[in-house]
């Protein structure tokens, strides 16, 4: 089920903002202790932008549920990649919540590592989901 073009590009943009701000934050966070004030401020700003982008993305993911995900589930199309990307997004949401709200120093490094790994993987998963959906749609169109 193809998404409306404007919504689709907005969703791509939201994921791109999350990926870029998260990846650059990793660099800034690494350099903030050794390179001084600039990277400290950059890390704080990037984290704020990342959080704002996450809020927008959460709204958009919620909008996918009644239309796109429900249709995909009922039609049994692109289920493996759809369930995978949905599960990864849920894990990103849970780990983000834990990083922001839990003060446990025992759990925080683990949550940070999981969040980072999944965040770096999400573009590949998203491209795979899109590619597989388009591939199967084209194959179905050829059979008609």
Structural features, described:
Helix 1 packs antiparallel against helix 2 and helix 1 runs antiparallel to helix 4. It is built from four helices and no strands. It is elongated. It folds into two domains: 1-76; 78-144. It is mainly alpha-helical and 144 residues long. It has helices at 5-35, 37-75, 79-101, 108-143. The mean pLDDT is 92.
Short description:
With 144 residues, this protein is an all-alpha fold.
Summarize the topology.
Blueprint: H1 5-35, H2 37-75, H3 79-101, H4 108-143
Helix pairs in contact: 1-2, 1-4, 3-4
Number of domains: 2
Distance between the first and last residues' Cα: 17 Å
Give the overall form: elongated
Helix fraction?
over 70%
* Low-pLDDT windows of residues: none
Q: What is the number of beta strands?
A: 0
Mean pLDDT score, rounded?
92
Q: Write down the Rg.
A: 18 Å
Beta strand %: under 5%
Oligomer: single chain
How many separate helices? 4
SSE order in H/E notation?
Answer: HHHH
Main sheet: strands, sense, barrel: none
**Classification by helices and strands:** mainly alpha
């Amino acid at each position: 089920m193809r998404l409306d073009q404007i919504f689709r590009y907005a969703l791509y943009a939201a994921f791109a903002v999350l990926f870029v701000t998260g990846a650059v934050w990793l660099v800034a966070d690494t350099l903030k202790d050794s390179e001084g004030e600039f990277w400290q401020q950059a890390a704080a700003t990037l984290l704020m932008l990342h959080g704002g982008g996450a809020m927008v993305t959460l709204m958009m993911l919620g909008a996918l549920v009644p239309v796109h995900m429900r249709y995909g589930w009922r039609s049994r199309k692109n289920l493996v990649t759809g369930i995978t990307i949905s599960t990864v997004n849920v894990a990103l949401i849970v780990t983000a919540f834990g990083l922001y709200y839990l003060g446990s120093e025992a759990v925080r490094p683990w949550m940070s590592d999981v969040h980072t790994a999944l965040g770096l993987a999400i573009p590949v998963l998203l491209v795979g989901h899109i590619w597989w959906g388009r591939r199967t749609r084209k194959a179905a169109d050829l059979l008609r």
